[in-house]
Amino acid sequence: MADAGFDPQSVRIARGAFVIWDGQGPSTHSVADASRMELFTTNALGVGASGWFGFVGAGRYSVGYQDDPAVTSSVIVPLSATPSTGHRASVFTITWATRNAPAGFAFDVRVRRPGAAGWRLWLDDVTRSEASFGPTAGPGTYRFEARLVCLANGAHAGWSPPDRIRVS
Protein backbone atom coordinates (compact mmCIF):
# COMPACT_ATOMS: atom_id res chain seq x y z
CA MET A 1 0.00 0.00 0.00
CA ALA A 2 1.25 3.43 -0.97
CA ASP A 3 -0.15 6.94 -1.32
CA ALA A 4 -1.48 5.94 -4.76
CA GLY A 5 -3.52 3.08 -3.27
CA PHE A 6 -3.38 -0.68 -2.99
CA ASP A 7 -1.37 -2.95 -5.25
CA PRO A 8 -2.93 -5.26 -6.21
CA GLN A 9 -6.34 -3.59 -6.20
CA SER A 10 -8.00 -6.80 -5.03
CA VAL A 11 -6.71 -10.09 -3.70
CA ARG A 12 -8.27 -13.54 -3.52
CA ILE A 13 -7.28 -15.64 -0.51
CA ALA A 14 -8.26 -18.94 1.08
CA ARG A 15 -10.59 -19.05 4.07
CA GLY A 16 -8.55 -18.50 7.22
CA ALA A 17 -5.67 -16.81 5.39
CA PHE A 18 -4.14 -13.51 6.45
CA VAL A 19 -3.73 -10.41 4.34
CA ILE A 20 -0.61 -8.42 5.13
CA TRP A 21 -0.48 -4.76 4.16
CA ASP A 22 3.04 -3.36 3.75
CA GLY A 23 3.48 0.41 3.97
CA GLN A 24 5.29 1.81 0.92
CA GLY A 25 4.78 5.49 1.77
CA PRO A 26 5.76 8.10 1.54
CA SER A 27 2.82 8.94 3.87
CA THR A 28 1.45 6.72 6.63
CA HIS A 29 -2.02 5.15 6.31
CA SER A 30 -4.22 2.96 8.49
CA VAL A 31 -6.13 0.20 6.71
CA ALA A 32 -9.66 -0.41 7.96
CA ASP A 33 -12.72 -2.50 7.24
CA ALA A 34 -14.81 -0.32 4.90
CA SER A 35 -18.03 -2.35 5.31
CA ARG A 36 -19.11 -0.80 8.66
CA MET A 37 -18.66 -4.22 10.34
CA GLU A 38 -15.67 -2.81 12.24
CA LEU A 39 -13.68 -6.02 11.85
CA PHE A 40 -10.27 -4.37 12.03
CA THR A 41 -8.19 -1.20 11.79
CA THR A 42 -4.40 -1.31 11.53
CA ASN A 43 -2.01 1.10 13.15
CA ALA A 44 -0.64 3.86 10.91
CA LEU A 45 1.66 2.07 8.47
CA GLY A 46 4.65 3.98 7.17
CA VAL A 47 7.47 2.78 4.94
CA GLY A 48 8.54 -0.70 6.07
CA ALA A 49 5.66 -1.18 8.56
CA SER A 50 3.09 -3.97 8.17
CA GLY A 51 -0.41 -4.67 9.40
CA TRP A 52 -2.48 -7.82 8.98
CA PHE A 53 -5.88 -9.41 9.42
CA GLY A 54 -7.15 -13.01 9.09
CA PHE A 55 -10.37 -13.59 7.16
CA VAL A 56 -12.14 -16.66 8.57
CA GLY A 57 -15.23 -16.68 6.35
CA ALA A 58 -16.32 -16.42 2.76
CA GLY A 59 -17.27 -13.03 1.35
CA ARG A 60 -16.10 -10.01 -0.59
CA TYR A 61 -14.59 -7.62 1.96
CA SER A 62 -14.14 -3.94 1.23
CA VAL A 63 -11.08 -2.35 2.84
CA GLY A 64 -9.75 1.18 2.60
CA TYR A 65 -7.56 3.85 4.04
CA GLN A 66 -9.07 5.15 7.25
CA ASP A 67 -7.80 8.67 6.48
CA ASP A 68 -8.97 8.62 2.83
CA PRO A 69 -12.21 6.64 2.23
CA ALA A 70 -11.83 7.09 -1.55
CA VAL A 71 -8.88 4.66 -1.54
CA THR A 72 -10.33 1.16 -1.43
CA SER A 73 -9.48 -2.44 -2.18
CA SER A 74 -11.22 -5.77 -1.80
CA VAL A 75 -10.36 -9.11 -0.26
CA ILE A 76 -12.20 -12.00 -1.88
CA VAL A 77 -12.68 -15.22 0.10
CA PRO A 78 -14.47 -18.15 -1.62
CA LEU A 79 -16.54 -20.93 -0.11
CA SER A 80 -16.34 -24.57 -1.21
CA ALA A 81 -18.90 -27.20 -2.17
CA THR A 82 -17.79 -30.85 -2.00
CA PRO A 83 -17.89 -33.23 -3.66
CA SER A 84 -18.24 -31.33 -6.92
CA THR A 85 -20.47 -33.98 -8.51
CA GLY A 86 -22.98 -36.52 -7.24
CA HIS A 87 -26.43 -38.01 -7.51
CA ARG A 88 -29.82 -37.08 -6.05
CA ALA A 89 -29.11 -39.23 -2.97
CA SER A 90 -25.68 -37.65 -2.41
CA VAL A 91 -24.97 -35.44 0.57
CA PHE A 92 -22.77 -32.43 -0.18
CA THR A 93 -20.82 -30.30 2.27
CA ILE A 94 -20.92 -26.53 1.83
CA THR A 95 -18.09 -24.86 3.77
CA TRP A 96 -17.99 -21.08 4.17
CA ALA A 97 -15.58 -20.62 7.10
CA THR A 98 -12.60 -22.16 8.86
CA ARG A 99 -14.32 -21.88 12.25
CA ASN A 100 -17.55 -20.65 13.78
CA ALA A 101 -18.39 -16.97 13.32
CA PRO A 102 -16.71 -14.55 15.73
CA ALA A 103 -18.87 -13.29 18.61
CA GLY A 104 -21.43 -10.79 17.33
CA PHE A 105 -21.27 -12.09 13.75
CA ALA A 106 -23.03 -14.72 11.66
CA PHE A 107 -23.07 -16.00 8.09
CA ASP A 108 -25.74 -15.90 5.38
CA VAL A 109 -25.60 -18.60 2.69
CA ARG A 110 -27.55 -18.52 -0.57
CA VAL A 111 -28.30 -21.23 -3.13
CA ARG A 112 -29.30 -21.04 -6.76
CA ARG A 113 -31.06 -24.25 -7.73
CA PRO A 114 -31.20 -25.70 -11.27
CA GLY A 115 -33.61 -23.77 -13.49
CA ALA A 116 -34.14 -21.04 -10.86
CA ALA A 117 -34.17 -17.43 -12.00
CA GLY A 118 -32.25 -16.13 -9.00
CA TRP A 119 -30.59 -16.74 -5.65
CA ARG A 120 -32.56 -17.81 -2.55
CA LEU A 121 -31.45 -17.58 1.05
CA TRP A 122 -30.65 -21.10 2.23
CA LEU A 123 -29.28 -20.32 5.71
CA ASP A 124 -29.28 -16.98 7.49
CA ASP A 125 -27.63 -15.81 10.69
CA VAL A 126 -25.81 -19.12 11.19
CA THR A 127 -22.70 -19.20 13.33
CA ARG A 128 -21.35 -22.59 12.27
CA SER A 129 -18.79 -22.95 9.47
CA GLU A 130 -20.44 -25.55 7.20
CA ALA A 131 -23.60 -27.54 6.56
CA SER A 132 -24.78 -30.60 4.67
CA PHE A 133 -26.90 -30.10 1.58
CA GLY A 134 -29.28 -32.50 -0.20
CA PRO A 135 -30.20 -31.63 -3.81
CA THR A 136 -34.00 -31.39 -3.43
CA ALA A 137 -34.61 -29.79 -6.85
CA GLY A 138 -33.30 -32.82 -8.72
CA PRO A 139 -30.55 -33.00 -11.32
CA GLY A 140 -28.63 -29.97 -12.55
CA THR A 141 -26.17 -27.40 -11.27
CA TYR A 142 -26.54 -25.85 -7.81
CA ARG A 143 -24.55 -22.74 -6.92
CA PHE A 144 -23.71 -21.43 -3.45
CA GLU A 145 -22.36 -18.14 -2.06
CA ALA A 146 -21.91 -16.74 1.45
CA ARG A 147 -21.12 -13.57 3.39
CA LEU A 148 -20.30 -12.46 6.93
CA VAL A 149 -22.87 -10.28 8.74
CA CYS A 150 -22.49 -8.05 11.82
CA LEU A 151 -25.47 -8.80 14.04
CA ALA A 152 -25.28 -5.47 15.91
CA ASN A 153 -25.80 -3.18 12.91
CA GLY A 154 -26.64 -5.40 9.91
CA ALA A 155 -23.47 -4.40 8.03
CA HIS A 156 -22.09 -7.20 5.89
CA ALA A 157 -19.45 -8.29 3.45
CA GLY A 158 -20.40 -8.70 -0.18
CA TRP A 159 -21.32 -12.17 -1.44
CA SER A 160 -18.43 -14.55 -2.04
CA PRO A 161 -17.65 -15.93 -5.48
CA PRO A 162 -19.99 -18.88 -6.05
CA ASP A 163 -18.98 -22.52 -6.05
CA ARG A 164 -21.14 -25.22 -7.57
CA ILE A 165 -22.11 -28.86 -7.48
CA ARG A 166 -23.45 -30.90 -10.38
CA VAL A 167 -26.14 -33.48 -9.69
CA SER A 168 -27.01 -36.22 -12.19
Explained architecture:
The structure is a single chain. This protein has strands spanning 10-12, 18-22, 31-33, 50-54, 59-65, 68-77, 80-82, 85-86, 92-95, 105-112, 120-126, 130-133, 140-150, 163-167. It is mostly beta strands and 168 residues long. It has two domains: 10-77, Immunoglobulin-like (Sandwich); 80-167, Immunoglobulins (Immunoglobulin-like, Sandwich). The strands form four sheets. Strands 8-14-13-10-11 form a five-stranded mixed β-sheet, with no helix packed on it. The protein has a four-stranded mixed β-sheet with strand order 1-6-5-3, with no helix packed on it. Strands 7-9-12 form a three-stranded antiparallel β-sheet, with no helix packed on it.
Question: Any guess at the CATH architecture of the largest domain?
Answer: Sandwich
**Measured distance between first and last alpha carbons:** 47 Å
Number of strands: 14
Strand percent estimate: over 45%
Mean pLDDT equals 96
Tell me, briefly, the overall form: elongated
| Spatial arrangement of strands, main beta sheet | 8-14-13-10-11
CATH superfamily of the largest domain: Immunoglobulins
Topology:
Layout: E1 10-12, E2 18-22, E3 31-33, E4 50-54, E5 59-65, E6 68-77, E7 80-82, E8 85-86, E9 92-95, E10 105-112, E11 120-126, E12 130-133, E13 140-150, E14 163-167
Parallel strand pairs: 1-6, 8-14
Antiparallel strand pairs: 2-4, 3-5, 5-6, 7-9, 9-12, 10-11, 10-13, 13-14
